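Fold this: Phosphoglucomutase
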Amino acid sequence: MDASQVSIYELADNWLRLDKNPVTRLQIETLKNNQDVDALEKLLRIPIEFGTAGLRARMEAGFARMNCVTVIQASQGLALYVKDNVKTAETRGVVIGHDHRYNSEIFAQLTAAVFLHCGYTVYYLGGLSMTPLVPFSVKYKGAACGVMITASHNPKDDNGYKVYYENGAQIIPPVDSGIADYIKKNQEIIVWGQEDYKTHDNVKSIKNELIDAYFESSKKLLLDSELKNTNNLKYVYTAMHGVGTPFCNRALETLGLDPFIPVVEQIDPDPDFPTVAFPNPEEKGALNLAQKTADAGGATIVLASDPDADRFAAAEKQPDGSWFVFSGDQLGILLAYFALLLAKSKNTPVNKLAMVNSTVSSQMLKSMAEKEGFKYRDTLTGFKWMANELIKLNQEAGYIPAFGYEEAIGFLLNPDVLDKDGISALACFVQLAVYLNNKALTVKGFLESLYYKYGYFVTENYYYICNDTDKIRKIFDNIRYGPEKPNADFNAVPRTNFFCTHNGKTLKYPLEIGGAPVSYIRDLTIGFEVEQLDTLIKSVENSQINISPGQYQPSLMVSPSSQMITLETANGGRVTLRTSGTEPKIKYYIEMSGDSTDKAAVITSLKNLVAAISDEVMEATKNGLL
């Protein structure tokens, strides 16, 4: 049924024909009887879109939300797509896990029922699972795909459907669009059997075996079998009302580390997340209860995972009694250094290692690579890109996948888990903290020493709220093409020296931000990248030139459906502006780097760049951006 061609009441009747869940049926029936057209339109008209992140939305009735119908439809499309595109898919099977959120178990059971109906072997992870166990199990068993039912750190009313492909990594284009097409072509419900997974011969209930294998694999992350907590470092752990506790316990035990002090109020799974406004360790104040527990227990380290245990956060108590919460970039550099220590402890040549991070994460990892000699790449945002880049580097050039991270506290340290893994990251961080503590060093103090070695990098990442999609487009077009009606000041600044025609339009990116020359431009919306901007400007010399096809093409994938521009300045600044795929936000990631002997100057330059981006580039006040 083409939703755009029928009345809302026909869509409601179609929903009621498909749905067997009494709760969501009643919701649509009530709205239909009350003739609440606006609510029905929101729930039914535009179907939930399947993409590289799978599905994620609020749990409600309707084709636009997460519910039994949309989960079954997604599973039907996925099962049939994989069967047609992965050899011996049914025999190789599918791994299915779920977290503790409301409806997660039901959604997992229905997913299993669909795959069983399609002839698959199903590795069903009964009971609560952490997300990293699914990609590990896909790779370990050589499965054709995997599904994890989770909404990670989203609010309690949300849920999601996360998909892994046969290589153990999240799906990327064109697989995502291929699956989406199959979902659209297979909307009729073929099976609704919640209990089928319990008795079917094709169900392999080997969760304990897979958990054992995961922790056996984690032993490769052991830095030193003789590492002992000689100075009695104490650390507190919070599961943020999620599933991480038993996995964290076992990780520490496996690597011979002391147990943690629990944040009792947050240690057990609770889908209501009662003690936090948002179950995300990144949110301001999210670690307050853990810090209070640490103060009471004499601990100096706080450890946290998000509810599905794929992200990791940490804080350290400072000599003055305050708590320093490490940013995702700071943890990334610390864990990258741990990966170096780990490689050296196993006599692995550093030049054989590959490390990656997302393009919105700190360039300090690149600086580390230049000084230490390992292979570095940056990727688009998301672990699907980082994992697939590590796979590519391994297959094409034999590099060993050693580390990957994104600034949003996601870290990959075990190449057997090709996604972010909060449990592995936690275990490695604890080893590093104990290792440093035995040398009478703090983690923050050690981070400061890394700044002296690799350069001082400071960041400010946040977002503007804008509900007007047309205004967002105009803002980005103004950056790349110049204002539609340039004023006198615009014509007076150096940026008008740059005239290049790209796809029939003249590019007029800013050549100066906050008084600093722009040295690099990458626009992943239109497909333009230039590294030595001053050289290009000299070649233009105020005369317009056409960019031929293939010239100045970005190394990263271009996506015309989203906005993303990166600018670098000659004084060490780097700015990435991008739209959010799920929220009315323009996100910005601003970094300044410089000499660690003059940190105050670097911080001042960062503040100036942040202000210049707001005033000159985004024109936040004029555009009413919050």
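The domain at 3-205 is CATH 3.40.120.10 (Alpha-D-Glucose-1,6-Bisphosphate; Chain A, domain 3). The two ends are 40 Å apart (CA to CA).
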